[in-house]
Amino acid sequence: MASIPTIHVLLALSAAHCLNDLLQSVITAVYPMLKEDLSLNFAQIGLITLIYQLAASIFQPVVGYAFDRRPTVWSLPGGMICTSVGITLLSYTTTFSGVLLAVFMVGIGSATLHPEASRITSYAGQGRRGFAQSVFQVGGNFGGSIGPLLVALIVAPNGRHYVMWFLVFAALCFWAMKPICRWYGSYLSQLRTAERKVESHAVLPLSKRRTLFTIGVILVLIFSKYVYMASLSSYYTFYLMDRFGVSMSQSQIFLFIFVLSTAAGTLVGGPMGDRYGRKPVIWVSILGAAPFSLLLPHTGLVLTVIMSFCAGFVLSSAFPAILLYAQELIPTKLGMISGLFFGFAFGIGGVASAVLGVFVDSHGIEAVYRWCSFFPLIGVVAAFLPNLKKK
């Protein structure tokens, strides 16, 4: 097989990831409208995030394992069908239970797309897997950054029913998946042969005991990253409106700036891991966000936006390196490992959002940012990661 990335497939995967995560970002972007329309409290807002994230996290490793065993070209379109149903329901439901069902369906779509698309990305990237994962991941982050901005421009002035217009992006996502399915269908026969050879000859780089310990360290790092990211992704708009008195539309623009920083960080993290190794990138990206997170609760509006941008940029450079580091630990189960770590990240984000929602109701939203600012310091445990050198 070729040792260079299959660029047109990577671009299609990035576009599909972009459109998928754009649709998913609608959930958090319409929180202020849901809160007002349905008279929700912050604990219920946290529960919405919890249901969405748990639906995504629980199913992701299961989906990844299933597609490792029986790959299919129809997995990505199937996930987008679930997401489309959820978006439609979110547009018109008038009950809290209807909102929970809507976000559950979107979560199932996410659980289907992420592990399978990540596995396809690893094969399409071939000799430059870090670069490939960054291209794939930056599509998702860019889509997530556009979503809140489009909600501010399209939905906020007109009402929640205008969420239905986002089905246009679902249609575009189906179109972007066509070249992926076509390429993957022709590649499956080679893929099955290659996987049989890998499973029969591959040797894990570490002993089983050290592999389990290392995975535990990675999970701790993901925990520290996504607890802090949950405070920004779920409650940043409320924080800005409460502390600085900005309007909802202005807060959505500032949220767009933050999420855009995560796209930029993701684009940097993968190639840096290819060049300098996964461990240094993981170490710098998690612990390096601490100065910005610690300063953020004590600054004015302009510096708050700058600190959030810097923290998002540095933290987001970690995930491509983390994912590839984990895949290199267990190279025969790419889909399962992708699903496990995507799922764990989503699950931690969901649980953290729910807990933080209760914390906001009890202690106020500014207390959340003072408390969460210490979580990037947990990145010091990256020192326990062994170096995985390519021979």
Structure report:
By secondary structure, the chain is mainly alpha-helical. It contains 15 helices and no strands. It has helices at residues 7-29, 31-37, 42-69, 75-92, 96-125, 129-155, 167-201, 208-244, 248-276, 278-287, 290-295, 301-316, 318-329, 334-363, 365-372. It is globular, with a radius of gyration of 20 Å. The protein starts with 6 loop residues before the first helix and ends in a 19-residue tail after the last helix. The model has no long low-confidence stretch (mean pLDDT 84).
What is the C-alpha radius of gyration, as a whole number of Å? 20 Å
Distance between the termini: 19 Å
Helix residue percentage: over 70%
Which stretches are poorly predicted, pLDDT < 50 over at least 5 residues?
none
The oligomeric state of the chains shown is single chain
Largest sheet features: none
Percent strand? under 5%
Per DSSP E runs of 2 or more residues, the count of β-strands stands at 0
Content-based structural category: mainly alpha
Mean pLDDT metric: 84
Give structural attributes.
mainly alpha; 81% helix; 391 residues
